[in-house]
Amino acid sequence: MSERVFRFILGAALILLLYLQADMFVYAYIGVLLFEGITNWRVPILVSKLRYGKEFRPQDALGPGCSRIPFDAERTLRLLVAAFLILTFIMFPEQTWFFPWFIGFMLFMAGLTNICPMVMGLRWAGFR
């Protein structure tokens, strides 16, 4: 599983959970993003390890290792999405009801087109 497919799944799941107003599942969604961001045990890498076995090397999936900040942009993306969802969905839901929808549609489109402005900006800032 690639990061592109996983972004598509993340976006579609968030849109569906928001549409169904399944708040407890959105909290679990935020928990999964925080777990992935903190531990760097990302679902696409774990699935690829299970699929390809010993010949899979995670550095191949992450891209070039030359960067100013030794922290993955995908990992930072997950932490930022979780932080934005905590801020907008949990802390200020009445004032910022549109922001979780925006995040869901942006993740969905990033998975669909393989163009993620947030990851591009993080890589430009120096993340790996």
Domain module tally: 1
Please tell me what the overall shape is: globular
Largest pleated sheet:
none
Radius of gyration: 15 Å
> How many angstroms separate the termini?
20 Å
The tally of strands reads: 0
Mean pLDDT over all positions = 85
Count of helical stretches = 7
Residue share in helices?
Answer: over 70%
Which parts are unreliable, with pLDDT below 50 for 5 consecutive residues or more?
none
Strand content: under 5%
The assigned structural class equals mainly alpha
Query: What is the chain-wise order of helices and strands?
Result: HHHHHHH
Entry keywords:
mainly alpha, 73% helix, 7 helices
Short structural description:
The chain has 128 residues and is mainly alpha-helical. It has helices at residues 3-20, 23-39, 43-52, 58-62, 73-91, 98-113, 117-125.
